[in-house]
Write a structure and sequence with these properties.
The complex is a heterodimer of chains A (about 120) and B (about 240).
Chain A (H helix, E strand, L loop, with lengths): L2 H34 L4 H8 L3 H29 L5 H27 L4
Helix pairs in contact in A: 1-3, 3-4
Chain B lengths: L3 E7 L5 E7 L7 H12 L18 E4 L2 E4 L5 H4 L4 E5 L6 E3 L2 E2 L2 H9 L22 H9 L7 H5 L1 H5 L6 H11 L7 H7 L14 H5 L6 H17 L4
Parallel strand pairs in B: 1-5
Antiparallel strand pairs in B: 1-2, 3-4, 3-5, 6-7
The chains are: A mainly alpha (about 120), B alpha+beta (about 240).
Chain lengths: ~120, ~240
């Protein structure tokens, strides 16, 4: 991978980390509110389904995870297992795409009303 | 005062520790201990030193598991139960006993373009650089490196990634990136980019914690990360 690509990956991981930090805080506050208010699953779904704002928020959350995790995983593989090069890049990309696919599937289910 | 129990690494990578007893003295440094062992116990012990006063950076070793300059490290500060274990620096090939091969350490300074490149000759006047400018202040913060290798030895990323340029070389590059007289900024930023360069740093701060001169290579590396990203986005490298 070229140095330019390495630098851009680093930048993508830092930006996604900033997004994640915000998303995790909002998510935790939301979870604490839901639990402390004693909301049932049906009540939560009633508030989320069809809500474009929450859909956009959690879609952003999933996107940030899907960018951040595979870049970090790639570094971990290189530094702990000495697994570098194209195969490690492909593996990390597959992990990222999988996270995006499963995450968006869950988001769609929660906000669109389908089965998660 | 009770004698000091000293364990000193002997041989190369596959060597082992040898035990010695060394009389304690007031204000005794770890380098004093090593020197005593070589002069009184075993003249075949190899180690490296020069100035003995914290200027040359040649006497760095691993003392009780921590990378240190031994000439300015008092035994009182590091002895545990009157015992001291002295080994060569980590992350560098051992030539013999306490002497490491520092070639890769300094080769990486060259790879990081740690050499000043100017556009003027000796016939030109001095370049005015204000001590108050932010660039000069950044240079001041990192320029006192003595090349001892303590940061390189303390860095886990060097252990995990043998191509990683290391804190000292990157710190040097950072001082040159901020040198307003230098003419190879883009080339230098390209040289320190990527997996073997500044972006491999995990900000563990081991180098900053251990630097005997109190420098913060971590801060310089963070600056390099930002500068390289900005240059990349601007299409300069």
């Amino acid at each position: 991978m070229s140095r330019r690509s390495e630098v851009l990956l680093w930048g993508a991981q830092r930006i996604s980390a900033m997004v994640l930090a915000l998303c995790v805080v909002v998510h935790l506050i939301t979870m604490i509110y839901a639990v402390r208010s004693g909301l049932s699953g049906a009540e939560i779904l009633g508030r989320t389904q069809g809500n474009v704002g929450w859909f956009a928020f959690y879609a952003l959350f999933v996107a940030a995870v899907s960018v951040h995790a595979p870049i970090g995983l790639r570094t971990i593989l290189a530094e702990t297992l000495n697994w570098r090069g194209k195969s490690a890049n492909v593996f990390s990309a597959i992990v990222g795409l999988s996270l995006a696919m499963w995450g968006l599937r869950a988001v769609t289910a929660v906000f669109g009303g389908g089965q998660a | 005062m009770e004698n000091l129990q000293v364990r000193i690494w002997r041989g190369q990578e596959n060597g082992g520790f040898q035990e010695f007893e060394v009389p304690r003295q007031e204000s005794q440094t770890v380098l004093d201990v090593v020197t005593y062992v070589q002069r009184k116990c075993d003249p075949t012990l190899s180690y490296r030193f020069a100035c003995r006063v914290g200027v040359c950076g040649s006497c760095a070793m691993t003392v009780n598991g921590v990378s240190r300059w031994t000439c300015r490290t008092h035994v009182d500060k590091v002895a545990e139960d009157n015992k001291v274990e002295i080994a060569p620096l980590r992350n560098l090939p051992v030539i013999k006993d306490l002497v490491t091969d520092m070639s890769e350490f300094f080769d990486k300074w060259a790879k990081a373009r740690g050499r000043f490149a100017g556009a003027t000759t000796r016939k030109d006047g001095f370049a005015p650089v204000s001590p108050e400018s932010k660039e000069r202040k950044r240079v001041d913060a990192g320029i006192e490196c003595i090349g001892c290798g303590v940061c390189y030895s303390a860095c886990d990323v060097v252990t995990w990634n043998k191509d990683y340029l290391g804190p000292a070389a990157l710190n040097r590059a950072w001082t040159l990136v901020n040198d307003v007289r230098d003419t190879e900024r883009a080339e230098r930023l390209a040289a320190v980019a990527g997996d073997a360069g500044c972006h491999a740093c995990h900000t563990h701060l081991n180098c900053t914690e251990r630097c005997p001169k109190g420098l913060s290579p971590t801060a310089g590396i963070a600056g390099l990360k930002r500068a390289v990203l900005a240059a990349t986005l601007a299409g300069e490298i």
